[in-house]
């Protein structure tokens, strides 16, 4: 069984003394080279598009994506095999990039939308919606597979008869832990919670629940876990803008609540997407209105202090862009999806690259090719400098909204990579030591 040591919540709030020599060295290099204080635009290489070998209209391949270790997985929400719209997950080797296998629903007559994916390189978590004309069970299901051979480990089980799994986007793998959304019906009305399992065997460990439940629900819109810390997004509730909750993922103890500075816009949807990287949290708010209704924004927070570090807004933001619909850390960069970003052919979408230190926009990625795309950037997953972007509304010879996904690599500008990495190490050392 995997053993995990959770962080000391008191240690999370303490700051550690950094080396004076290291700080002076970093500052002196930046002073001598002021252009290095902000990272130059990196080179972004398209490794390959991903298209399923078999598919049809409205499959929505690219609905979800995940990358970890040698495994890339892409969910196809409405793929049909034995039953209409049961879903499927397409798995690829990441290096070299090659198709490996299709994972089909375990019980297709009971499952629908078998397409929500997460991976940490060792395990693969797949959620199914349990909906559809051929399925009598309205609740959701979740399954753990070995990422290498794709053998089923187990189906995740609720810890109590009053708890039902809910496949609503909040699922994550990391630190030997699997997190999946649920509702507790013990009090009669559903209370959204997040369940934590050992990802090696599916054993239930603990429950994540806000110490003060949001007044109007919304807890569990998104989730991520890294180094024993879990973050869960809540897009509505007592916080009009939404909120993101930090937990010790092993003990279930709530550590902090992150909320955006400023606006009280009641359709902000802060917490719609989340990710963790080092001592930073990245949170999407696609309903923000800085550049018009639902133009969107994203936020960087210091996980240790709970302080907002940067608010990120697209340089070319427009109403309906839905900037913040997906977020991910890729090395030293923050990736923000804008699935509704428009062009002359419609809302094809885009992905923006930001410097996590300065908060500056460095690049924008748009899909290439002759086939119309819709929703590019609705899902993003990253490991290191490699990332996968889903576009489930893509058109290709298989039909309308059959979907697609793209694998990219970010190559930092060599002269600045070392100084940026050094700055990240110094900031992490000055704010948190998790072990």
UniProtKB/TrEMBL annotation:
InterPro entries: FG-GAP (IPR013517), Int_alpha_beta-p (IPR013519), Integrin_alpha_N (IPR028994), Quinoprotein_ADH-like_sf (IPR011047). It comes from the Bacteria. Residues 1-31 form the signal peptide. Transmembrane segments: none annotated. Keywords: Glycoprotein, Repeat, Signal. The keyword Nucleotide-binding does not apply. This is FG-GAP repeat protein. It comes from Botrimarina mediterranea.
